[in-house]
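We recall that each integer encodes one residue's backbone shape. We quote one record:
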Amino acid sequence: MIEQREHFQKELTKLNDLILRMGGMVEKSIFDSVEALRKSDAGLAQTVVMLDDKVDKIELEVDDLCLELLATQQPMAGDLRFITTGMRVGSDLERIGDLAVDIAQRAIELADQPLLKPLVDIPKMAELAEKMVHKALDSFVKRDAAMARELWTDEEKADNYRDLIYDELVEIMNQDTKTTPRALPLIIISRHLERIADHATNIAEDVVYMAEGKVIKHAPK
């Protein structure tokens, strides 16, 4: 019985480590995709695209491990919530990785053209999104619902950045329609960064459920 419990704890640690490794990869993908855009570096953007396969493979490992633990260990209470939350976190991280890839692809698309304007708000928004992912994962590891709830304010900041970027770029396109092919990818990138922030908030909501047993999705924050 003791050996079985020790094995179970090792598997929970493995799950935790897989999610952290996956999280580190997607954080790097967010940073590198926007850095590639800022520097017009198609090579760096391509490394983000290539990393996506590794992220996908880890998500499958997370899913397989969670299903195995649910099927063979019959976890109770807190451990059960940890495992089910781990599976959802893996899914959100995989989607964040996909969004970073799409940003990288927009960076490749724009790499041979001069930037429409110096990038200011998009890098700031990317830094915020990256920090949100990191904080969400930190709250998951620490099972810290209070830390997770801090992301509600961060999400509002991300939405404000998205609106600011959109309004500025629409104004530029209205003044000169020839700028549209360079402006639209930047609007798409801002929307992807906003979606990354949303996924980080999803993780935070799941952490609150894991730590407190409270379902707060779709509830007023």
In short: The domain at 2-212 is CATH 1.20.58.220 (Methane Monooxygenase Hydroxylase; Chain G, domain 1). The chain has a mean pLDDT of 92. The chain has one domain: 2-212. The helical segments are 2-39, 42-72, 77-110, 121-142, 145-149, 151-175, 180-212.
